[in-house]
Design goal:
Number of helices: 5
Shape: flat
Helix content: 25-40%
Low-confidence stretches: none
Distance between the termini: 43 Å
Strand content: 5-15%
Radius of gyration: 15 Å
Number of strands: 5
Structural class: alpha+beta
Mean pLDDT: 85
Largest sheet: 3 strands, antiparallel
Length: 142
């Protein structure tokens, strides 16, 4: 397919299905910026839809963890910045204001606008933050 899914690509690398140069090539196809990495690249059809034209911080985290394996670089600081950004900048005007406010992890970031969207207080986005803390060795589970 001409479109790829960042979470599927990440899992293929994290589970050792895709390795070495093939892993680097798979990861290099994705654009990333200060809003995150699109879940689907390139966007499907008209570029609309919650799962189509958005970065999902939970998925970004697995993607960046796989990228660390693929190119042997550390992306924890970038990952932490993406997650922190979901705690409050400018929210989509269409977003229900009762779904968590500033200071709680949110579900997704609409692309290309970068507006925080979806519900707040997201467990999977909080879990992504814990993942970053573990990778950065800020937490010791022993």
């Amino acid at each position: 397919m001409p479109n790829q899914n960042n979470l599927g690509t990440a899992f293929a690398i994290l589970f050792g299905i895709v390795k070495g140069e093939a892993a680097r090539k798979a990861i290099d196809n994705y654009p990333s910026n200060h809003y995150g990495t699109p879940l689907i690249h390139p966007f499907l059809g008209d570029g609309k839809g919650d799962h189509n034209a958005a970065a999902w911080p939970f998925c970004d985290t697995f993607f960046l963890q796989a990228k660390e394996i693929a190119d042997d670089k550390d992306y924890t600081a970038y990952n932490a910045a993406l997650l922190a950004r979901t705690m409050g900048t400018k929210f989509s005007e269409k977003r229900d204001k009762g779904w968590g406010g500033f200071g709680s992890f949110h579900e997704k970031v609409t692309l290309p606008s970068g507006l925080i969207s979806g519900s707040g207080s997201q467990l999977w986005t909080s879990a992504a933050f814990i993942n970053v803390c573990l990778r950065a060795k800020l937490v010791d589970l022993k």
